[in-house]
Write a structure and sequence with these properties.
It is a single chain. Helix content is 33%, strand content 15%. By secondary structure, it is α/β, with parallel strands linked by helices. It has 2 domains: 2-155 and 318-334, 3-Layer(aba) Sandwich (Rossmann fold); 159-316, Glycogen Phosphorylase B (Rossmann fold, 3-Layer(aba) Sandwich), CATH 3.40.50.2000. It has a 7-stranded parallel β-sheet. The protein has a 6-stranded parallel β-sheet with strand order 10-9-8-11-12-13, with helices on both faces. β9 (197-200), α5 and β10 (222-224) form a beta-alpha-beta unit. α1 crosses α11, α4 (183-193) crosses α9 (291-298) and α7 packs across α10.
């Protein structure tokens, strides 16, 4: 089976720091190659893979602001589709734009919908609903207007996350500094609990950061440590008393939630989007309605067995499990053709 894997080009694949879509694409690509599949990764030129790398854009446009996103996205996507006949299947991880090429080729296309940035993009998905095979990353993120071949939760390379049975006493916010992710609410929860909060992640909204985050940083009780690479991420997640995930949107998945649990660290999350699919209330964390309820549950974190958090990921959210499910999808798509 010859597979073309289309990754975004905002960041390198795999990403150095932030880049959840690119991270998933890398794990899937490497898992397929290790099983003997012929995979060509269409990604940035500085990407790393044990498969074949095909690139027209040298670096991620979020890492090199001289790169015009729309120009290089068009060049990147068209490069794959102009070689479509070289592959048995195309796996699109690049949102809706590649769908507009699918009517021009005969190679089947699987599209993982990593989330809907706006209801405004749905007309594209609806137009190609009968042409493309859609995979959702959670049941919560499915649109009633679309047909899906499967829901496949993201998996992680659990070997990158060390289980820590004994945590320190700080709370952790790990994600984009943006209203959607709830950095402001995390600060409010930590202050009410009189606990230290460490914040890590890219500043995606500068105005939000300067208004709601920076004024509360004191390098003691509230500390922002910037983006975190794999080693620092492992340390921050593993030694945290709990991960605060006070999201203000219906999150399609939430990689940091399972990464935290892989280290044994329970999660307190606002009960939105996919969170009930990841968190079993009282078992590996708590689902709460808002800041006030989150504060009440911080004191209950001691009742969570950190081994149960790790076991959740081992049982349900490994990269191996994700890869096998995608292989099932590819096989299902190709069976009528063969």
């Amino acid at each position: 089976m010859r597979i073309a894997m289309l990754s975004p080009i905002a960041w390198r694949t795999p990403p150095r720091h932030y880049g959840p879509w690119e991270s998933v694409v890398s794990l899937l690509t490497e898992g397929l190659v290790s099983r003997g599949y012929d995979v060509t990764l269409f990604a940035t030129g500085d990407s790393e893979t044990s498969g074949k790398l095909h690139a027209v854009c040298a670096r991620g446009y979020e890492e090199d602001r001289s790169i015009m996103p729309k120009v290089w996205e068009c060049l990147h996507i068209s490069e794959l589709f102009e070689h479509a006949e070289d592959f048995d299947i195309i796996h699109n991880n690049f949102d809706f734009l590649p769908l507009t090429y699918t009517g021009l080729i005969t190679t089947p296309v699987v599209t993982t919908i990593h989330g809907f940035s706006s209801p405004g993009i749905l007309p594209v998905y609806k137009k190609y609903n009968s042409k493309v095979f859609y995979v959702s990353i959670s049941d919560a993120d499915r649109s009633p207007d679309l047909d899906y071949i499967k829901t496949i939760h993201h998996g992680i390379d659990i070997k990158q996350f060390d289980f820590q049975p004994e945590p320190d006493d700080y709370l952790l916010f790990f994600g984009r500094i943006h209203h959607d992710k709830g950095a402001r609410e995390a600060l409010e929860i930590a202050r009410a609990c009189n606990k230290k909060l460490i914040l890590a992640g890219i500043i995606q909204d500068e105005a939000y950061y300067h208004r709601h985050v920076k004024p509360h940083l004191d390098n003691c009780n509230a500390v922002y440590v910037g983006t975190a690479g794999p080693v620092q991420r492992n340390q921050l997640l593993g030694k945290a008393y709990a991960l605060l995930h006070p999201i203000n949107f219906n999150e399609p998945f939430g990689l940091s939630v399972i990464e935290s649990m892989a280290c044994g660290t329970p999660v307190i999350a606002f009960n939105k989007g996919s969170m009930p699919e990841l968190i079993e209330h009282g078992k590996n964390g708590f689902l709460v309605s808002g800041c006030e309820e989150a504060v009440k549950h911080v004191v209950r974190i001691k009742d969570i067995n950190r081994s149960d958090c790790r076991r959740t990921v081992e049982d349900r959210f490994t990269a191996d499990s994700m890869v096998e499910k995608y292989i099932d999808v590819y096989t299902q798509v190709l069976e009528p053709i063969q």
